[in-house]
Design goal:
37% of the residues lie in helices and 16% in strands. With 447 residues, it is an alpha/beta fold. β1 and β2 (33-37) form a beta hairpin. The chain is elongated.
């Protein structure tokens, strides 16, 4: 009775708060609702971790469906496997978008049709270098210098007689056409100049050949079409404002972005770029006009990585998340790290999370990472991480009055992440799989 009274007191205390977020029922007393303080949960970053099949997606869905009920909720959910982009995960306050696939590139009004392009002109100098430059090339310094100079020239041409004339830098997100840059780089690579004894090779002769080849490959690679195959629509100066409204407008609620068809080798750069744009816009907003936004990072171990071995693309993407983890709170940007392998998630980012929802973790390395991040006075509550039932979690942090063991309520909107019943399907009377459809999609690189 005393325990029941205690749990009910905790429950009612949190429910009386300004921003109660219901997560489930306490394991100790299933009649008491387990609330978290929604403000505190998002203010100082959070992590939702759990092995595959532990109920992690249900937990995310449970939180998202409550966020979506708020009038001006504002969040981006990076959906890596397309599990939150299905018809079962739709509802008022949730909008679903996808990164453009090769079959989307020729369509008009992409933003109005929930298709996102990520134009190359959004890349800053560092990101362009990571994507296009081979640092092992002895001519890399010359390539970087001339390329950035030509990019700035093209950007400046597009802002002549505008309020931005003569004040932009190579990092300014100004639309420009990359093809004239490539033409200029080819000219310099084959340029002959007059010398004392007739014509001789120019100062950059042969030094841009490999760089030009890489740039040409990017421009012709349909997998990268969402970045390099731009139409007139994406080259308009007003496009960035439309794009920002799509990503960050509080009237649009939760924006689920299907990243499942983005090539894995550039996934960290693309997500890092989106995160950087969100953070930068918040940073440059006047504080009284700033509307807070949360970034829900599904499968975060794929792009907020702990160990990056000579991968400049992944490294540059990680920088955005490290900066948001350290400074995002000041500008109204919250991170929610969602991962089945916390041991592979960047420690700098995880250490900034002040709230943890840990479902069952079977791997000892993952358990140890979470235990090290939890307060020392938790006793043996963290020792139960491998014993938790499906959809059962340990919640720790300043969003809850006490560390609690909770059974998460089943969400009304469901992601397509249910565990497949192998034995039952193998015992069915007929096979549902359509291999020719799968092969066709694989060749087209689009479902």
């Amino acid at each position: 009775d005393k325990l029941t009274n205690l749990m009910q007191t905790i429950s009612s205390k949190l429910a009386e708060g300004i921003s109660p977020l219901s997560i489930g029922k306490y394991t100790m007393d299933e009649n008491s609702i387990a609330y978290m303080d929604g403000d505190k949960f998002f203010q100082r970053h959070a992590a939702i971790v759990g092995s595959t099949g532990s109920g992690k997606s249900y937990c995310v869905a449970r939180i998202v469906e409550q966020m979506a009920k708020l009038r001006y909720s504002n969040a981006i959910l990076f959906d890596i496997h397309g599990e939150y982009s299905t018809d079962t995960f739709k509802g008022k306050g949730i909008k679903q978008y996808k990164i453009a696939t090769p079959s989307d590139l020729d369509s008009d009004n992409k933003l109005d049709n929930n298709i996102l392009m990520i134009p190359y002109w959004l890349l800053n100098y560092e990101e362009m270098q990571a994507l296009l430059l081979d640092r092992s090339d002895q001519n890399a310094p010359n390539q970087a210098m001339v390329f950035s100079r030509e990019v700035l020239n093209e950007k400046e041409k597009n802002v002549i007689n505008s309020p931005y004339d003569k004040i932009i830098t190579v990092d300014s997100p100004v639309a420009y056409d990359l093809n004239p840059v490539l033409v200029k780089m080819r000219e310099l690579d084959t340029q002959m100049v007059h010398g004392a004894k007739g014509e001789k090779q120019g100062p950059y002769f042969g030094k841009f050949t490999r760089f030009n080849q890489r740039l040409e490959n990017k421009l012709s690679d349909k997998r990268m079409g969402f970045m390099f195959k731009l139409s007139k629509e994406e080259l308009q100066q007003g496009w960035l404002e439309q794009f920002s409204n799509t990503l960050m407008d509080g009237n649009r609620g939760i924006k689920v972005i299907d990243m499942s068809e983005v090539p894995s080798d550039v996934l960290p750069l693309v997500i890092g770029l989106l995160a950087r744009i969100v953070f930068t816009i918040q940073q440059w907003s006047v504080s009284e006009h700033r509307h807070p936004i949360a970034l829900l990072c599904d499968e975060a171990h794929l792009y907020v990585q702990q160990s990056i071995i000579q991968d400049s693309v992944a490294e540059i993407g990680l920088k955005s998340f490290e900066r948001i983890a350290k400074e995002g709170r000041k500008y109204g940007v919250s991170l929610v790290i969602i991962s089945q392998r916390p041991s592979e998630v960047n420690r700098t980012v995880l250490s900034q999370c002040n709230n943890f929802i840990s479902l069952r973790l079977t791997n000892i390395e993952d358990q140890n990472v979470i235990k090290r991040l939890l307060p020392d006075n938790l006793g043996n509550i963290a020792d139960n991480l491998s014993l938790l039932d499906i959809a059962e979690a340990i919640i720790v942090g300043d969003a809850t009055l006490l560390p609690s063991r909770v059974k998460i309520d089943e969400p009304c909107i469901k992601p397509s992440s249910q565990t497949i019943p192998f034995w039952s399907i193998w015992g069915n009377e007929k096979i549902q799989q359509n291999l020719s459809e799968a092969i066709n999609n694989m060749i087209r690189q689009s479902k």
